[in-house]
Amino acid sequence: MEPLQSNNQLPPCIGKLGAGDVVCSGTNCLPECRILGLSCRLRKFAARQDIFVQGDVQNQVYLVTAGAVRLYKVLCNGRRQIMGFKGPSDLLCFDRTPRHGFGAQTMTATELRVFPIGPFYAAAASDPRFLLKLYSEAAAELSRAHELALTIGQRGAEGSIAAFLLDADRRAAKASAEYDYVWLPMRGDIADYLGLTTETVSRILSSFKKKGLVELRGRRGMRLLNRTAVLNLATGSAEDLGRRVMQERLH
Amino acid sequence: MEPLQSNNQLPPCIGKLGAGDVVCSGTNCLPECRILGLSCRLRKFAARQDIFVQGDVQNQVYLVTAGAVRLYKVLCNGRRQIMGFKGPSDLLCFDRTPRHGFGAQTMTATELRVFPIGPFYAAAASDPRFLLKLYSEAAAELSRAHELALTIGQRGAEGSIAAFLLDADRRAAKASAEYDYVWLPMRGDIADYLGLTTETVSRILSSFKKKGLVELRGRRGMRLLNRTAVLNLATGSAEDLGRRVMQERLH
DNA sequence: CGCGTCATTGAGTTCGGTCAATCGCTGTGG
DNA sequence: CCACAGCGATTGACCGAACTCAATGACGCG
Questions:
Q1: At a CB cut-off of 8 Å and minimum separation 6, what does A25 contact?
Q2: pLDDT at B15
């Protein structure tokens, strides 16, 4: 979920998706390029643009190659739930429904590869390895959604934000082994992701800073100073603590 | 998600999953049966048994053929988030990870068909139609998880329960066109599904009854009396209201 | 440098949680 | 068949965490 640090350095458009099969890689892809034997179009978006909205006919599949995207649902009363943040090498659409079940907006300047949905799934159906990879990605996404439900439903505000910061840190670490500050979304986006308000997010982030758990740089920068303390506040991350403790609890 | 009404009537073990490919159907399957050219074992569980727990090595795939199952995660502090309720024709495991990310327990007497995971995915890899079906199921599960996150994060307690009742009713209607009362899980399970407490669930259900929105029969029975009023309380269901209103809101 | 947007901080309110007591199914055993 | 035991559901009183409303502060862009 690395945003475009500046507009002139774009990560290569290879991804988790079928690394061996990628025909097109590097930063110089033409608008028309081929991935997995499929032609796709390159689309560039400025920040805060709709890529698609909830209810739109679903006729394309998107691969993020640069930038940052938020997926969200909204309710009639105006409340918004962000389902996740997507970055380079993330695929946007797993739904096999005629219409999008959520919307997607760019958070920063973003580049996408766009596949027509028909050929995309036709290709998947004809290549078990690709389809299995796709399936695994969907399963991973499902796992993240479950983790989100756990966070929103069962952790308090502090715990939610602690878990969120740990996740953001983990992602950043995975993206590049050496990193100093972790990029965070706007407070309001964090809030809508965790089912809180901007004020609560801001307050708790401030309290974490005061306690020396994190360092905040500018509006978007964050660095974990005391990972174990943050981990404790999260009352168990799915990956680190969860497993061990489960065994005791469940008879 | 129809539970075993009584122990002697079992729904047939055909399912959403590759209806045309099911070799074994009906209630008289032997412990060793074949579905999709795969041999599977029949396993029967009493109520309140662990099928598997979070952290267990994942070496089997389960198809529910009768009964009701809850999937859940727990936190170190003991809080539990139920990810979903499963019934006949539901598949339990989409994860492609070495270990289970959540636990599964029976809620009532339950029958499962158990597939060893290796052959299951080997078969999937060799049959694009089956794999695509599997992928669609995973995508549907993802969609449900997103809806859950929306509910927990953005709807109030009343809205959550309203949305839950509508969903339960919809499921029941899908299972059998003529139904009188909808089966509900224990209050505690509803609570842990919606990120609430048993007390809150109980209170709100009582208030719905008082307002004439629902009729409650015994501990498990529910019937919607005023669907539109309940729909309003849910401030928009993803399927019914969502789409239309989205279009206005998003510029 | 100045403005707009986002973030922070404070004060007061509310919704849902906690604690505790009672009620009433449901199923079991006499 | 009825009585009883035990667990789950209900209801009430109180509390506290997070929300709302409001004002101030500070990035960061033009």
A1: A12, A13, A14
A2: 36
Predicted TM-score (pTM) of this structure: 0.87
**Nearest C-alpha of chain B: how many angstroms from A6?**
28
Q: How far apart are CA B242 and CA B155, in angstroms?
A: 13
pLDDT in tens, B78-107: 999 999 999 999 999 899 999 999 999 999
* CB-count exposure of residue A65 (10 Å: 0-12, 13-18, 19+): buried
Coil/strand/helix, residue A95: coil
Closest CB from A95, A102, A125 relative to B132 = A125
Which residues of chain A neighbour B128 with C-beta distances below 8 Å?
125-126, 128, 131
Minimal Cβ distance to A128: which of B126, B145, B238: B126
Contact between residue B214 and residue B230 where contact means Cβ atoms under 8 Å apart: yes
Distance CA A211, CA B198 (A): 35
User: Residue A190's closest CA among A173, A175, A205, A209?
Assistant: A205
Q: Which two tokens stand for residue B85?
A: 């309720």
**Among candidates A191, A154, A51, which has minimal Cα distance to A112?**
A51
Query: Which of A37, A30, A46 lies closest to A115, judged by CA?
Result: A37
